Amino acid sequence: MAIASRSCVEHDQGTSASMDAYFVIIDSHWMASRLPRSLAMLQNATSSYPGIIEVQVVAISENTYLSSLSRRYGARFSTIALPSIGARSNEIARRSRGRHLVFATPRARLSNDWIIKADQWLSKTSWDAVILRPKRKIATQGLTRGLRRLWPMPPRPGVLCVAYEWFERIGGFDPALDDTAHQDLVTRLRACQARVLELEL
Length: 201
Description:
This protein has 201 residues and is an alpha/beta fold. It is built from nine helices and seven strands. The chain has helices at 6-18, 28-31, 35-46, 64-72, 85-93, 114-123, 145-150, 164-169, 181-191, and strands at residues 22-27, 53-59, 76-79, 100-104, 129-133, 159-163, 196-200.
């Protein structure tokens, strides 16, 4: 492993000191086989900010493998016996000590500097939520421009970062929703005049 220079270490310490606290929530039922890769990406991105970023893996029931996997990547593991992603996410969010909540989806692709970029928009500017989406591949390459307008491809889900204050203000996720809970939350945030920014990484 390469040893960071003194200037880089000082820069990281300065960034950590000025960064808000983040609570990252990963639903293992939703992530399924993508969970190990997602945890590895999160560890690469957050290892420089101990005590500032907490990663929480949620499962419906006790699972020795998931508990061990979470510890391996520096995450906490909790069981919440509720039937939907929306309900489980609401319950674990209530335990958050962070100023901002981060919800990852199976399609998340996280660069090592994603948390710095999210923090710049949430803490240093006036945005209330930031959606980080992976860059879209041209899935309709063979279609004409007119047909693409008639048949728009929905954006792939990514990572939702939202101020806890706003999450609480609109009542969190709809507990009846599963994999559409995130998009529903974004729709309600916008309906309530929250400032939501979408970025491709």
